[in-house]
Amino acid sequence: MRRLRACLGAVAAVGLAAAGTTALIAGSASGATSALANRWYAAAPYLMPLDNDPPDAAAIMDATGLKAFQLAFVLAPNGGGCSPTWGGTAAVSSDTAVQSVVNTIRAKGGDVSVSIGGYGGTKLGQACSDPAATAAAYQQVITKYGLHAIDFDLEEPEYENTAAIKNEIGAAKILQQNNPGLYVSVTTAGTADGTGWFGKQMLLEAKSQGFTPNNFSIMPFDGGFNGAASQTGALTNFNQILQSTFGWDQATAYAHEGFSGMNGRSDAGEYFTQADFQTVLDYATGHHMDRFTFWSLNRDRQCTPADNGGRTSGTCSSVAQNSWDFAKYSVKFAGVTPPTSTPTPTPTPTPPGTGCKPAWSSTAVYTAGNEVSYGNHNWKAKWWTQNETPVASDWGVWQDEGAC
Known about the structure:
Blueprint: H1 4-7, H2 12-18, H3 26-31, H4 38-43, E1 46-47, H5 57-64, E2 68-75, E3 85-86, E4 90-91, H6 97-107, E5 111-117, H7 124-127, H8 131-145, E6 149-153, H9 162-178, E7 183-189, H10 197-209, E8 215-219, H11 228-246, H12 250-255, E9 257-262, E10 264-265, E11 271-272, H13 274-286, E12 291-295, H14 327-333, E13 365-366, E14 371-374, E15 377-381, E16 385-386, E17 398-403
Parallel strand pairs: 1-2, 2-5, 5-6, 6-7, 7-8, 8-9, 9-12
Antiparallel strand pairs: 2-3, 3-4, 10-11, 13-16, 14-15, 15-17
C-alpha cells in the first residue's frame, strides 16, 4: 500500500540540509503545548515534512481551519540499528527541520501526531530486539516532539513478519501505559472484505496482548476499489471483523474504527474524488467512527501536465481540484466548518451558574472533550455531535460528569 511513498521519498535529506531554523529544545517546545481534542488527532491528514515538495502547513491552516497533521514516517536507520529516524536517513535525536514544522503548527494553535512505519524502508519493529526496545525507540520520538498522539502504520511488508508485529503491538501497549492520554491509532491495509489475512493476524496479536488503541483504521485503496461505495462496503465488513475479534457490539466497533483514504489517483490507478470523500465522511460520521484521514496533504493540490502526465504523483492528486479541497473533509470530521473568509473568534457562552459548564445548545456542534450543562448536570462529549440531548447512556455520545 502507499507504494509511491517509497519511490518518491528519496529526497528527504534535501529538506534537512536546507533547514536553517533553530528548533526549540524539546522540553520547552512540548511543555508549552496543550493537547487538542482527540477529534483533531483523529482527523489529521498525513504530511511528509521532508519529502514530496512539502506544502506550507501554516497556509493550509489559514485556508481550511485544519489544526492537526500526521507527520510521516519514522523508520529504523537504513544502515541498521534500533533508533528512530525520519525516512531511514535523518536521526530524530538531531533533527531540527521537522521540529521547525512542528513549532510553526503549534504557534498557530495546532498540533501534530507522528506516524511510524508505512510501506517503504525498514521498520523499528523489524530492527529492534523486543517490544521494550521498540517502545524505547518510539519514546524518544514522543519525548523529542512532546507528542500527544502517535500512529502505527502497519502494512506490507512488515505486517507479514510475526515477530515484528509482536514488537510493534507490544510497543504500542507500553507507550499507551507510559504516556497517559496518548492518542494511539493503528493503520493497516484494507480489502473488499475489510482487511486481509495479515491484517486479521495483527488484530489477533492485539487481542492476545490485551491492547486496545483509540482506533484500528483501514486503507481502502490499492485493492481493486472503485469509488466510495466500495470503500464504505469495506468499512462495514471491517466493523464485523472488529466485532468478531474483540467481542464488541456494532456501536463499540465503530467507535474503535477508522478510515484512511487516498485522495485522487491511487497507486493502482483508482480514482477517489471530492464526492467520494463526502460520501465516506457521511458514512463515518453517521456511524460515529473514530477516525477519518487521508494520504496525503502533499498531494492535495492540482497537477499540471508537467508534474503529472496521467500517472500517480506524490505532489498532486491527478484529479481536478482547488488546493486543499480534501483537507476540508478532515476539518468537517473534526466538527469545524472550513472558513470561507478570515475566521473571527466565537464568543464564549456565559456559564448558567456556579460550577456549571455553558448550557447545551441543540444547534451547536460539539467535538470530543467539549463540556456543557443540561438538567443541572455537567456533560462531556465523547465524539462529534449535534442536536443529541445529553442523557446518561453507556453507548451514547454524552458522559455524565455529575450535578452542578
